[in-house]
Amino acid sequence: MIDETVYVTHGPADLSLAQDLFSTIRNFPFTVHVAMEELESGRSRSELGGRIANADLVVALFTEDGATDAWLNQEVGYAVAKGVPVLPIYESPDDRGGYVADTEGVELQRDDLTVTVFNLVCRLRAALAPLGALSVPNWFLRFPCSLDGCDGTVTIEVERSQKDLWRMHEHNQPVRQDCKTCQSSYFFDAGTFGFLHREDGALPDD
Questions:
Q1: Which Gene3D superfamilies does the record match to this protein (predicted)?
Q2: What are the C-alpha distances in Å from 29 to residues 3, 75, 131?
Q3: Does residue 170 sit in helix, strand or coil?
Q4: Most-buried pick from 8, 47, 101, 204 (CB within 10 A)?
Q5: Parallel, antiparallel or unpaired: strands 57-62 and 86-90
Q6: What string of pLDDT tens digits covers the 206 residues of the chain?
Q7: DSSP H helices in 113-176
């Protein structure tokens, strides 16, 4: 799943919300392009057509204020024209109109973004699943161990179902993975895969 790309289209006022929704999701090994972040690099919105056409999935953020944004709706229409699937996130079902009026998506719960992020991860796992016999894609998080002096790499294979992960989240059971080099333990929220804390291990004696 390393080559997959997700493009996030949204209204100008919803940049921080889009960043909050995808902050932990960006830990996974696929590329996320957020529309207004692309503009901060000096590009114009009209130049983002290539990002959309080459995406495996477009996530469209429909808020009460942003649902009528011209660029948001134009980019959704462009994605549909290019055959790119669109996943709507919406505050109200009435906010998603046009091409995605009847498309199942993710309800935005501002008072509990953890639930929204979890449901978004559910939909992303389904949308980016590989074709074939495997029903759950091989998702993983990989990062360098942050213990001073350790050069190990930590890899968390995400093999549990979303149902199991949410059950762990509700029971405050984190996902744990140890560094094989220094035995430091890393803990992540099972619902969002947000980093919680590290328990330090020790480097082996030379």
A1: Toll/interleukin-1 receptor homology (TIR) domain
A2: 8, 24, 18
A3: helix
A4: 8
A5: parallel
A6: 567 899 999 999 999 999 999 998 988 888 999 999 888 777 778 888 889 999 999 999 999 988 899 999 999 999 999 999 999 999 988 888 788 888 889 999 999 999 999 999 989 988 886 544 444 446 888 899 999 999 999 999 888 888 899 999 999 999 999 999 999 999 999 998 989 999 999 887 76
A7: 113-127, 162-170
| 160: amino acid identity, one letter | R
List beta partners, residue 58: 7, 86
Note whether 122 and 171 are same-domain residues: no
Residue 91 lies in a domain: yes
Q: Are residues 123 and 143 in the same domain?
A: no
Question: Last residue of some domain: 73, 96, 127?
Answer: 127
* Domain that includes residue 123, residue range: 5-127
Side chain identity, residue 159: E
DSSP letters for 94-157:
GG--GGGTT---EE--GGGHHHHHHHHHHHHHHHTPPSSS-SS--EEEEEE--STT---EEEEE
**158 in any annotated domain:** yes
159 and 117 co-located in one domain: no
Residue 48, both tokens: 């983002």
Q: How many domains does the chain have?
A: 2
The H or E element containing residue 33 is strand 31-34
pTM for this prediction: 0.81
Distance of CA 91 to the CA centre of its chain: 18
* Spatial separation of the C-alpha atoms in residues 51 and 112, rounded to whole Å: 30
